[in-house]
Design brief:
Blueprint: E1 8-10, H1 14-24, H2 30-48, E2 54-61, E3 64-71, E4 75-81, H3 85-94, E5 99-100, E6 103-107, E7 114-119, E8 130-134, E9 137-138, H4 142-153, E10 159-163, E11 165-166, H5 168-177, E12 182-185, E13 191-192, E14 198-199, H6 205-210
Bound molecules: 1-O-pyrophosphono-5-O-phosphono-alpha-D-ribofuranose and uracil (URA).
């Protein structure tokens, strides 16, 4: 399977990998799972947002003037419900000025097609907006493509996917349809199983985050 490495950033930071390892463990209790998922989310979003543009500003410290910078990009967070909420919460803590547009998608267990049940987007968005599609699992890629397409149709091309774990099949599918989309992930795993689950993955992210 061909995956274009340049558009995919695997975050190998030891703290990322330690948190991800705890999420993978089937014995990790749901309280710890949520806490670790929140920490991992903060780290991955932080890494993904390294690309944001800044503009210089002046600031007064107690000892005098200093040069500083503020983010100048129009940032949109687009969590894919349900599991993407954990990433959105963490991202909002880092960048309080970001707008959040929730996208409700549910994978049909039989067909593995993403079914849309909620999307409340404005009539227009600035074409130069930076959109972060947040979803812990990039499996077949169906949900990611459905989410990206909403913004693509509105003329927003600067889209970045953030996931805990990605399957090569999902990355390839996204890259074929939207080659400009960047991906930041904690791991590229081996493959999908017959039920569309990432192997080894971490199981059902939504169920484990929300204890269902
Ligand atoms: C899971 C996951 C992704 C999607 C990934 O969500 O959180 O959104 O599957 O699969 P794909 O790449 O094959 O589309 P699910 O549909 O189970 O919904 P949930 O988050 O509400 O549990
Ligand atoms: N959704 C999940 O939560 N886990 C997978 O492995 C695939 C889809």
């Amino acid at each position: 399977m061909t995956v274009t490495a340049s558009a995919v950033q695997v975050c190998n930071h030891p703290l990322v990998q330690q948190n991800l390892t705890r999420l993978r463990d089937f014995q990790t209790p749901s309280g710890e799972f949520r806490r670790r998922a929140g920490e991992l989310s903060r780290m991955l979003v932080y890494e993904a947002m390294r690309e944001l543009a800044v503009r210089p500003v002046g600031v007064e410290t107690p000892l005098g003037p200093a040069k500083g910078s503020v983010i100048s990009d129009y940032v949109i967070l687009a969590p894919v419900l349900r599991a993407g909420l954990i990433l959105a919460e963490a991202a909002q803590e880092i960048i309080a000025s970001a707008r959040i547009y929730h996208i409700g998608l549910k994978r049909d267990e039989e067909t593995l097609q993403a079914i849309s049940y909620y999307a409340k987007l404005p009539d227009a968005l600035p074409a130069e907006a930076c959109v972060y599609v947040l979803d812990p699992m990039l499996a077949t890629g169906g949900s990611a493509i459905a989410a990206i397409s909403l913004f693509d149709k509105m003329g927003v091309k600067n889209v970045h996917l953030v996931s805990f774990v990605a399957a090569p099949e999902g990355i390839q599918k996204v890259q074929q349809k939207y080659p400009h989309v960047k991906i930041t992930t904690g791991s590229i795993d081996d493959k999908l199983n017959d039920h569309g689950y990432i192997v080894p993955g971490l199981g059902d992210a939504g169920d484990r985050i929300f204890g269902t």
